[in-house]
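Posting this for the archive.
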Amino acid sequence: MDVAVVIPSYKVCTSILEVLGQIGREVTKIYVVDDACPDGSGRLVENQCVDRRVAVLYHSDNQGVGGAVITGYRAALADNMDIIVKVDGDGQMDPSLIPCFIAPILAGEADYTKGNRFFDLEDLHTMPKARLLGNALLSLITKISSGYWDLFDPTNGYTAIHRVVAQCLPFEKISQGYFFETDMLFRLNTLRAVVVDIPMAAKYGLEISHLKIHKIIIEFAFKNVKNFGKRIFYNYYLRDMSLASIELPLGLLLLLSGITFGSIRWIKALHSGAPTPAGAVMLAALPVLLGLQFILAFIGYDIATVPKKPLHIMKKWQR
């Protein structure tokens, strides 16, 4: 199969040439996407890189990492590439791992692979503590919103995708900013694509991160909630109906009603000074407990239905 590598290029002049020099011969084509880089990293590659596999694509306006990757995806699909790998140009991702990322796809075990820096606990000592905590929290939120409960490190941008799956993605709807990797998981789940984590070491050098946590935390929270709602509607009401379709709304209804009733009785007891009757306590506690049971049953069903059959294999059978 023909393998392509897409490299978003924005303020990576100090590392982009070294990254390109480390890409092995298993790769057929390399697309460097200059995302309106103020340092002219695209021109640098054109002037100093002699690798004939490299093609430089330019954006007149900065579109973000997602926009750059999508441009590379479109170019690779137009050139009939079979597998598309995305590698950052800042040197944090080891190009020698590309065979590891494409192997599960070649073997028919996955549609999409992504890096996981949390696999080896010893490597975590090199990761800044704030980033470690943030990634752990974001991983939990993304598991819930995307439906891929078996994945970790959702913001990891080292990925590979089969062309059949890439062709099914609604590129115009995918987030083009830093939410790109997380939004990709949501889109892949709606396609029922199989996603596999690939262990990789956490690597941090002197590069400067352009991600400002305080600016994107509200955006990430809102978009994850939105994606969760859309995923539940698509998978449990529009595409299919199951017992879990009843368990979630019933569980939420019971939980909220129990909490509401209990709160009202508690406030009244505070004002009156009289103890709350045992019967009232039971009327508040019972729906809360039943609601939690229904919600846990839904989560168990959701975990059990993580996609297992690769989409690109099923598409071949249909042909």
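The mean pLDDT is 90. Residues 241-318 form one domain.
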